[in-house]
Amino acid sequence: MDFNEFIKAAASVKPSQRQLRWFDTEFYAFVHFSPNTYTGLEWGTGKEDPAIFNPTEFDPDQWVEAIKSAGMKGLVLTAKHHDGFCLWPSKYTEHSIKNSPWKGGKGDIVREVAEACRRGGIQFGFYLSPWDRNCPLYGTDAYNDYYKAQLTELLTGYGEIFHVWFDGACGEGPNGRKQEYDFDGYIELIRKYQPSATIFNDHGPDVRWIGNESGTARTAEWAVVPHELCWFAEPQTNGALLPGTLSHMYNYDPDIGFLNNILYSKGLCFVGSEVDMSIRPGWFYHPEEEPHSLERLFNTYLHSVGGNACFHLNIPPMPNGRFDDRDVQRLRELGDKLRETFAHDLTGDAALTEDPLPDGDTQRAWILRFPGERPVHYLTLQEDIAQGQRVETFVLQQRDEFGDWQPVYQGTTIGHKKICPLSGNPVQELRIFVTSARDRVLLRSVQAY
Ligand code: OTN
Description:
It is a single chain. By secondary structure, this protein is an alpha/beta fold. 23% of the residues lie in helices and 23% in strands. It contains 10 helices and 18 strands. The strands form 4 sheets. It has an 8-stranded parallel β-sheet, sandwiched between helices. Helix 9 links the parallel strand 9 and strand 10. The longest helix is centred in the C-terminal third of the chain and has 18 residues. It is globular. The structure holds 2-nitrophenyl 1-thio-beta-D-galactopyranoside (OTN). The site of 2-nitrophenyl 1-thio-beta-D-galactopyranoside (OTN) has 7 residues, from loops.
């Protein structure tokens, strides 16, 4: 295999149908709710008394309404966080809402949230912390049986699940309990009971962590990554081009998917990345905290959803079980700004035509021509990633007063979506010039706002 054959194979690494559906979801909510909501901790001890959990004004419809107002299309609930407390009446532990005063121990938070999601027309998913500070079995093989039993309760008892989230956090430390997780067994259960659900884990199989919780996306994000990082995903190529090891790779490396890494990979796979960030500094509710600014949330959206990733924004309910009015307001503001910015695609009466290069290549440049001048603030591009991710760099150009093309935006990867901010000055033509790509470029859409 030579370099061109390797790159061509890399350009044809494809997503599954469930990954395509996940990418099209783009923006969805995280909801961190547990005894931490009442103790103010971010990592519960597992020794919390279930009696403290009592959301007297619990209102999942208020959650769903606020989530929808921001334009989010799903909700992932922490069904069990690190403290081991279950928000559903699990048969396998007493450390759950069964022993809380909420609804006399007869309630089921997971069910009520799942049903509210269905009423509101958004997707439902759950987070089940592998790390469990309450379960006495943690650190033994029997814990995997316990965990798989709980996973099965959630996979089979609450309708369709769109996303299952495995947190890799563990604070046991070098002298703590060591747990070998049976992720292959966990994944097998999810594929069996919820085949459409995508699975988040640092190492795949479907979605990987962006590598920080500050909402910082890469300037160039590849969904085609080494199996050496995402070993739970299926490799779609076989054989490295160069000898060497990628064992050092981790989710926060800046160049995951770049040539300088993939050439050493013995197998490439398709695993998109998720930007997970909380609307406030903490993942759980702390009354002294404020929601982040609209500007920060809007920019995070532009760089995540508009940076070949998905945006998973966390909102922490208050102890009474409702979202804080300040968060509800911020979500509404974010949704209003997104709708105002991206509601009207200006390309309806425009023409997108190929602009063959001197070498005859017709898959490298296109001209978007409007009937008259248009104030374009954002151009969004999508590759047809169902065939693979190809574009490495591109440039957007406008004609100068002499009719020559001049750069107005320097781009890197496109993938599922790239949102390119422009000046907003009136323009009649924009040229999209792909300056380097791993194979034929297949555009899925070009939109102007
Ligand atoms: O203390 N932490 O565990 C922590 C601090 C900063 C950023 C992340 C983490 S935990 C981290 O969370 C990620 C999702 O946000 C992934 O689940 C990683 O596996 C996990 O280690």
